[in-house]
Amino acid sequence: MRRLLTTLFTFFFLLEAVPINGTVGAAPSGTLSDLEPDSGSVVCPPGVYETAPDGCLPLGPSEYLTQIAATGIPYPILPLPAYIPPAGLNDTPYRYFKVTDKGAPLFASLEDAAANQPSSQVLYPSNDLYVSYVGEAVPVGKDAFYQLRSGNWIRAEGGRLGKYDPPFQGLLFSSQPPRAFGWVLDEANPRTAPGLDNPETVQTLYRYNVVQIYDTQEASNLTWDLVGPNEWVDSRQISRVDPHTTAPKGVTANRWIEVNLFEQTISVYQNNRLVFASLVSTGVDAFWTRPGIFQIYEKKLSETMTGGTTGDRSDYYYLEDVPWTMYFDQARALHGAYWHNWFGSKMSHGCVNMSIGDSHWLYDWANVGDTVYVYDPSGRTPIDPSLYGAGAP
User: Which position has the higher pLDDT, 42 or 216?
Assistant: First the structure.
């Protein structure tokens, strides 16, 4: 009886100590119990046993751990050798204001603003119209005006850009990750086995949660990723990174930047080791980010980006002081994006949008001449050069 109580105590203690996500199902009964002699035998210490050892039986916790290990999940479950970059990278010297006033007239001085005499420059209405201002709003009559960094003044219509709290940041790695990992893109409840017919667990994964991927299987015409014991997630809900230790074909340098258009991820390698990874937002359909091998040819601390392709300016955008800009393919650049928080989804006109903190880290790391390898493992992004213009944010 004492031995039984000790075994049970060890088993429940193990379940508390091992950091597993989701509901743990009872281990199915195996044939190991048939090995026990009539006189009884000692239960092995908790661990993974690929074969039954002499002198003890790998039952209870050991049987469960062995079954979990067979799915590719190691014991003990170790976290990724990763950490979040310094929070200070999210800071910029700029303050942004989203303009909603139709036509958005600009004024050369406060006197002109008071007299309602706009300059010839007009910011056309757009959902992507952001300016960079200095100081506080200055009241003039019934209105108030912000001074832009350009020196012009604009009515204080619309609202200041709210900061995303907490701001999204990728991961730095102290050593090479041992397996694939990724970020959850939307709230999800894993299933106990791959396939839509299997029940969901009580575990809930949330947007931007980081998971390790231990196995991948096909079921219900979908691809499923194993992210924990008895926890399978539809792979469409995860932006995945597969670390490797050799450069892609055509990349000859020992440091390079990879942009995966299908997964919407960026991976940075130095000395053939992954040092940084994160989510990005690349070009939407018809404004694709072009696959290929490029080099960073210019770095700028900030850039005003404006453009549009339609005659009615329905896709017009104006973005002042886009931070940490690194051009690599004509007008296509890696840069910070302060106007959205949908990293992991296509959002741009061809550039590679990154969070402010991620773009700041990459700007500090990257050199002019560094290789940028852009690819789509799904093959869905066109490669015909005639389909690509100069690109845009």
Answer: 216
Please say whether the beta carbons of 190 and 22 come within 8 A: yes
In a domain, 325, yes or no: no
For range 254-278, the mean pLDDT: 97
Give the integer Cα–Cα distance in Å for 99 and 108: 17
Residue 101 maps to a domain: yes
Average pLDDT over residues 49-65: 81
Render pLDDT for 293-347 as a digit per residue (tens, 0 to 9). Answer: 999 999 999 999 988 766 556 678 889 999 999 999 999 999 999 999 999 999 9
Q: Which position has the token pair 């350009």?
A: 150
What is the rounded CA–CA span in Å between residue 359 and residue 376? 21
What is the gyration radius of the CA atoms in the chain, in angstroms?
27
Alpha carbons 201 and 241: distance in angstroms, whole number: 24
Query: Can you give the CATH number for the domain in which 203 is found?
Result: 2.30.30
Q: Is 37 exposed, middle or buried (0-12, 13-18, 19+ CB in 10 A)?
A: exposed
Query: 106 near 154, Cβ under 8 Å?
Result: yes
Token digits for 335?
């840069």
Token output for 164: 């995303």
Is the pTM of the predicted complex or chain greater than 0.70?
yes
318: tokens are 């104006």
